[in-house]
Amino acid sequence: MSNPVIETILSRTAAKYYDPKATLSDEQIRELVRIGTTAPTSFHLQNWRFIAVRSSEAKARLSPIAWSQPAITDAAVTFIVCGQLADSSVIPDRLAPLVASGVMPQTMVPEWEIPARDLYMAFPQRQRDEAVRTATFGAAAMIYAARSLGLGSTPMIGFDDVAVHREFGLTKDEVPVMLLSIGAERPGNWAQKPRRPVAEVLDLV
């Protein structure tokens, strides 16, 4: 079982060393995010936002509240990957392009909005869980897209979430789920680390 997509996944590793002189254009950054936003989201909520920290000034603001991890200053860009608390009221707007393009009939919109409201509205923990799931799906797509383009990536959870929230103007419904550095690698990065055997993590029932 092998093809270029699988080989990309199997060869991915978290980069530690980046070429600090290498940059990504704004168009390349936009394309990474476009790819990330094709990842699945519950009820087509698309409840995410990506803050691309790529200027020297912005990196200097992020670095001290993210454990001064070298990837933040050395990689071309570090995304603050935000999940937004699940809110069923946005579903009609999110589904409108599907209706306009003929993919979904208008009559089906309440069939998505009502169960989403029942699932999330009275359950703050579920709203937050969905924010984290959504952001993680999007980040994963960007990680593999970066690998396919010959770029390294480093997902990071080492940061002061309160300070990131304040410094980068996140709204009250946004959760900074992770930082994701992407850029050209320099020599010295490890190959992918061995994983636990499938037999230890899989139950066939």
Describe the structure.
A four-stranded antiparallel β-sheet has the order 1-2-4-3, sandwiched between helices. The chain contains nine helices and four strands, in the order ααβααβαααβαβα. It has helices spanning 4-11, 26-36, 56-62, 70-74, 91-100, 109-120, 124-148, 161-167, 198-201, and strands at 48-53, 77-84, 152-156, 174-183. Helix 2 packs across helix 7. It has 205 residues and is α+β, with helices and mostly antiparallel strands. Helix content is 43%, strand content 14%.
Write the topology of this structure.
Elements: H1 4-11, H2 26-36, E1 48-53, H3 56-62, H4 70-74, E2 77-84, H5 91-100, H6 109-120, H7 124-148, E3 152-156, H8 161-167, E4 174-183, H9 198-201
Antiparallel strand pairs: 1-2, 2-4, 3-4
Helix pairs in contact: 2-7
How would you sum up this structure in a few lines?
It contains nine helices and four strands; from the N terminus they run H-H-E-H-H-E-H-H-H-E-H-E-H.
What structural class is derived from the secondary structure elements? alpha+beta
Tertiary shape:
globular
Number of strands: 4
Strand order of the largest sheet: 1-2-4-3
What is the overall number of helices? 9
Question: What separation lies between the terminal Cα atoms?
Answer: 23 Å
Percent in helix: 40-55%
The parts where pLDDT drops under 50 for at least 5 residues are: none
Radius of gyration: 19 Å
Please report which band the strand proportion falls in: under 5%, 5-15%, 15-25%, 25-35%, 35-45% or over 45%. 5-15%
The description of the largest β-sheet is: 4 strands, antiparallel
In N-to-C order, the SSE pattern is HHEHHEHHHEHEH
* Rounded average pLDDT: 97
